[in-house]
Design brief:
single chain; alpha/beta; five-stranded parallel β-sheet; 34 strands; 32% helix
């Protein structure tokens, strides 16, 4: 089956393309019923027909929505790959190790090279060491280069050693905002033997919030680093056809309600609905009321509501955004003409596509909200935020609440809030971190300008931030700083302590730095439940700061408000934020900016020239970057003394053919876990405790505690990362009676660190399993959560359900994900974790096969139950048989 290459005349010239309408002309049927996201996947099959895609794949996608979804995996070939440095550095390390293995097997190492364009944006390295000062940014960047010299040198080598590999140096912005504002084209072009062809922009990225780009109509999502590496090397991303849940939006947001409030509401709705492994596509009359920045905010949090994508079709708002961010008029013309020609351009009067299911939200019902204190889907109306803290931490309402700038605190007396003299000690519920941070919100001018205007009004009323609050501002790109400065709002934010601390993902990823020293001592000595308020997307336990137990997600204006209030006990809808110098109460409603005020600032102080200027030299970097050494050679020169970059062991002793799969016999339980275990629980990204195994490892090698950096920054060193697996200080392993990375060794019953127990089991030749509840592996697309698992000796994870990315990562590292049958769990089966586990039938394993598990209790009694292997496709089974994706890909490159 061959389709003609059609031509399209644009302002830039003539381009070729494969027209979707030709499917109907060939008698295959119409595509008009399909959701826009599935139409893009259909074009991908059509363009790669005869290559990675076959006629069966094309027919399967075209038949979407006509009865039961076909149980057939389709090979999606992304146009590009995007990386951030925490996950990108391990990808580079793996590719470098693959080159070594290739050379050792007598092959050509240069064959290990990206075949699709790759962009790596360095955005996760900044820690908030200094804050509250005009020198914060310069100091933090200086420390960033000092800490990350080895990582950055590796990336400089990769720039030269690999083709199709670009690096956006540090200090530019957050990966997803750089992607949204500059890298994304919406429609790509490529030179081929048939000439220049056009096709929809698409990608996979090594950060779960890659879905932010769905807001501009770009098809893509987050994957694990190991899957991204396979795509880089030319492997298609194999996927089962997903359900597409339509999310109809009607009405418009009320005055005072932000895009953050909307996305927290959407997250709550879709988590309750259940959309894991599904696409969500937004449609309806309310869609036209949302700017691309608002849409990007919603798309960004797809991982939080569980969807693979939160997709917004291309429309007039998309074109306006491209124009406002300085894209060439030739590109904008191509996007408009191509998308309209292909039926990919949404218009208000267009027929609604067919969806698997539909959810509806009236935008006028959305209210001011925050989410926390532990999960992003736990939304609370603003008036009930104090109650949420009391429910979680048992702190009565009568305790002192908000600090005021004139030396008083608020207390509840008889149902009324009154001011009393300040007590000297810190209290439960006090806000010790207030951070305007994260890709979710810092890309949205409406909420960023809103925060600036609220700060301006607060300063005018004489309000201040209590001295125990660590404040920070980490813009998503330099454009944000420029328009805030030109509007005169940056100065007001700085007066409240919100100085620019860096450009990148800071507090939200765990790079909050240490608390104020006196505050940290008080929190530790009295075991206080203190609070972080951040404009982020993740608030899992132990992620933001090891000393902060309660974390709330909020819009940037609310971050500023709670910084002033100083306590989560303040009801911002009723209680004053504080007093002005004359002793008059100031309420949130007194200083909250209107939509019109925000709009006036944006139209007056933000323009396309800003974007053109800031991105004109995006790949060059500053003097520090340019002065870094650039190692030579096809093979990377590993430094055995490095504590940042080590050659990983995945390919050591690898045979040319995979070994037959073996049953898991008499395995022990390394950890018995509950529901909602996140990848942060499994592989933390934040601070490294000095008394934990990873901290001991670094101390033994002469690394000072002040130079530990974070787990995330040391992902290029497997020795650190395996010691950090299941090392979250808030992990609750039911085999022990305390929080942290501990377990009991069986049958001795000795309590020890999980890493130490795993090493002991390895010496004893005992395989391991992990038992868990629902939503295992939710959160970040963190491949180290799977890499660390396999390096600890875990052969299988048995859970009630898995999040999409982590399940795929486990398969990609050769770990068997097993799912309890519906209605069964650790609790219903009476499992305690003291049993030994035998899982047979792996030699003849089939996708999604139901296996029998035998759990032998210490008494000798055997509990037999069934579990489904969550190896979902034949391609995944192939990877699993090879011991993971990377060995499977490498074996294809080896000389015969």
């Amino acid at each position: 089956m061959n389709f003609p290459l059609r031509t399209l005349t644009t302002r830039a010239g003539t381009v070729g393309y494969y027209r979707l309408e030709d499917l109907e002309k060939e008698g295959l049927g119409s595509f008009q019923h399909l959701p826009y996201s599935i139409r893009i996947l259909l074009e991908n099959m059509m363009r790669h027909l005869g290559g990675v895609a076959g006629e069966g794949h094309l027919r399967a996608v075209l038949s979407w929505g006509k009865g039961t979804l076909p149980d057939l995996e389709v090979p999606f070939m992304p146009a590009r790959v995007i990386l951030q440095d925490f996950t990108g550095v391990p990808c580079v390390v793996d590719l470098a190790a693959m080159r070594d293995a290739m050379a050792e097997q007598g092959g050509d190492p240069s064959r290990i090279n990206p075949v699709v364009p790759v962009d790596l944006v360095i955005d996760h390295s900044v820690q908030v060491d200094m804050f509250g000062s005009e020198y914060a940014f310069f100091y933090n960047v200086k420390r960033e280069f000092e800490r990350n010299f080895e990582r950055y040198t590796l990336l400089r080598w990769a720039q030269k050693a690999f083709r199709n590999f670009r690096v956006v140096p540090p200090g530019t912005g957050i990966v997803h905002q750089v992607n949204l504002e500059y890298l994304a084209k919406v429609v790509q072009t490529k030179e081929t033997p048939q000439g220049l062809i056009a096709f929809p922009d698409s990608l996979v990225g090594t950060d779960s919030h890659t879905t932010m780009i769905n807001g501009i109509g770009v098809f893509g999502w987050g994957v694990g680093g190991i899957e991204a590496e396979a795509v880089m090397l030319g492997e298609p991303y194999s996927m089962l056809l997903p359900e597409v849940v339509g999310f109809r939006l009607v009405g418009e947001l009320r005055e005072g309600v932000t895009a953050t409030d909307l996305v927290l509401t959407v997250t709550e709705i879709l988590r309750k609905k259940g959309v894991v492994g599904k696409f969500v596509e937004f449609f309806g009359p309310g869609l036209s009321q949302l700017t691309v920045a608002d849409r990007a905010t919603i798309g960004n949090m797809s991982p939080e509501y569980g969807a693979t994508m939160g997709f917004f079709p291309v429309d007039e708002n998309t074109l306006d955004y491209l124009r406002s961010t300085g894209r060439d008029e030739e590109l904008i013309d191509l996007v408009e003409r191509y998308c309209k020609e292909q039926g990919l351009f949404r218009t208000p009067d267009a027929p609604e596509p067919a969806y698997s299911d539909v959810v509806e939200l009236d935008l006028s019902t959305v209210e001011s909200s925050m989410a926390g204190p532990r999960r992003p889907q736990d939304r609370w109306p603003l008036s009930r935020v104090p109650e949420s803290f009391r429910q979680s931490f048992g702190k009565p309402a009568g305790e002192p609440v908000a600090a005021t700038p004139n030396g008083h605190r608020w207390e509840n007396e008889g149902g009324k809030t009154v001011a009393v003299a300040t007590r000297p000690e810190l209290k439960d519920g006090d806000v010790v971190i207030a951070a305007i941070t994260s890709c979710t919100n810092t890309s949205n001018p409406t909420v960023m300008v809103g925060a600036g205007l609220l700060a301006k009004k607060a300063v005018e009323r004489g309000l201040k931030v209590p001295p125990y609050v660590k404040t920070s501002l980490a813009p998503g790109s330099r454009v944000v700083t420029q328009y805030l400065r030109e509007a005169g709002l940056l100065d007001d934010l700085e007066k409240l302590g919100f100085y620019v601390v860096g450009y990148g993902c800071t507090t939200c990823i765990g790079n909050s730095g240490t608390l104020i020293e006196e505050v940290a001592r008080e929190v530790e000595s009295r075991d206080l439940a203190v609070v972080a308020v951040l404009s982020g997307n993740r608030n899992f336990e132990g992620r933001i700061n090891p000393l902060v137990k309660a974390n709330y997600l909020a819009s940037p204006p609310l971050v500023v408000a709670y910084a002033i209030a100083g306590s989560i006990h303040v009801d911002l809808t009723r209680d004053p934020l504080g007093y002005d110098p004359e002793g008059r109460p100031v309420y949130l409603r007194d200083i909250w900016p209107t939509h019109e005020e925000i709009h006036q600032v944006i139209t007056s102080h933000m323009n396309a020239e800003m974007f053109k200027e800031q991105y004109s030299h995006v790949f060059e970097g500053d003097e520090q970057w340019q002065s870094l050494p650039v190692p030579e050679g096809e093979l990377y020169r590993w430094d055995e003394n490095s504590t940042y970059i080590r050659r990983p062991p995945y390919f050591d002793g690898m045979s040319r053919e995979p070994k037959p799969l073996e049953d898991i016999v008499e395995a022990r339980v390394l950890a018995l876990l509950g529901d909602s275990i996140t990848t942060d629980h499994i592989s933390p990204a934040g601070a490294i405790p000095k008394h934990y195994p990873a901290g001991r490892y670094l101390l033994e090698r002469g690394v000072d505690v002040l130079d530990f950096n974070t787990y995330g920054s040391r992902r290029g060193n497997h020795e650190v990362m395996v010691r950090g697996t299941f090392a979250n200080i808030r992990l609750r392993n039911k085999l022990v009676d305390r929080e942290g990375g501990y377990t009991r060794h069986m049958p001795s019953g000795e309590e020890m660190f999980i890493y130490d127990a795993a090493m002991r089991y390895q010496k004893e030749g005992v395989p391991l399993v992990v038992l868990a509840g629902k939503e295992y592996g939710s959160g970040s697309s963190r491949d180290w959560a799977a890499k660390g698992t396999i390096l600890l000796g875990v052969r299988a994870v048995l859970a009630q359900s898995f999040e999409r990315i982590h399940r795929a990562n486990l398969v990609g590292m050769g770990v068997l994900p097993l799912e309890f049958m519906p209605g069964e769990s650790v609790e219903t089966l009476g499992l305690t974790g003291e049993e030994t586990y035998t899982i047979r039938g792996l030699a003849d394993l089939k996708p999604r096969e139901v296996l029998v598990v035998e759990a032998r209790r210490p008494s000798g009694e055997v509990v037999r139950f069934k579990a489904r292997a969550r190896i979902d496709t034949p391609v995944e089974l192939r990877y699993f048989r090879h011991g993971g994706i990377l060995p499977a890909v490498l074996r294809e490159f080896l000389p015969s």
